Amino acid sequence: MAPALVHFLAGATLVLFGAAPLAVRGHLAGRHLWLVAVGGLWGMIPDSHYITPVFRPELAALHRTHWGDLCAFHYALDQPPIATRELESIAVAVASFLVAITVFTAATAVGDRRTRAARSPRAELVARTLLTGYAASLAAMIAAVAAGLVLTWTGRIDTVAALYGRESAVAGWLLLGGGSLVASGVFAALFALLRHRWDVTSSRAGAALGLLFGVAGWLTVVVIAAPVWMRVVLDLPRPIPYVHLMSLPALVVFGLVLGTVYPLVRRILFPPEMDQIGS
Hints:
With 279 residues, this protein is mainly alpha-helical.
């Protein structure tokens, strides 16, 4: 089992991230402490059977099933390799919580109409950078879930873990999430470059760009980089190029979802006048 602190911080982090769009609109000023408390308690609901005088069997059953993941991925956090590495899991949880606080604070500052006009260009740049990172991270996680479901349906999620010498599906999901964050950062940078010349801000244009991005990712990462990595690092012989067609649908879905979600989240987060500043 993961420490209670990890579950509390996981819930608080997810709630703060999820509340950032509302903070940008100026609806959550002064409510961040309540969000932390509510999110933290939400993440610990499956553990409440240890202290509650009622519904103990039901809550204990929730704790032992995947339904616990409805509470800030509680069940997944209680499984190896996360649960067996307490110090590492606490460190990651604290770091993620600090990032969430930073993003939420930036979103609140953007939503504060009283100080928006008085902000310096440097503060505006910091706020834009944090919100762009938030949009990219959120889009990455949604796209990772979509791609992960495709890989799970085709029975290929374990192959993601195999790239790092792991075998479990949990490791596959974790590595897919980490890789998705990196890929989303690259996509956000590409999006920023292209929007100066073409209108790629609509979800339709973003989906087309994401489709091309997914196919390009398959050609570079799966066809070329993966076999080189497996030869050099894991000492596993793989042909170059490695035409792994089973992974293509997952990356196509990833690109489509990423390209659709990122512009949408970006439009929600950035006020029109702030978006024009960065154009």
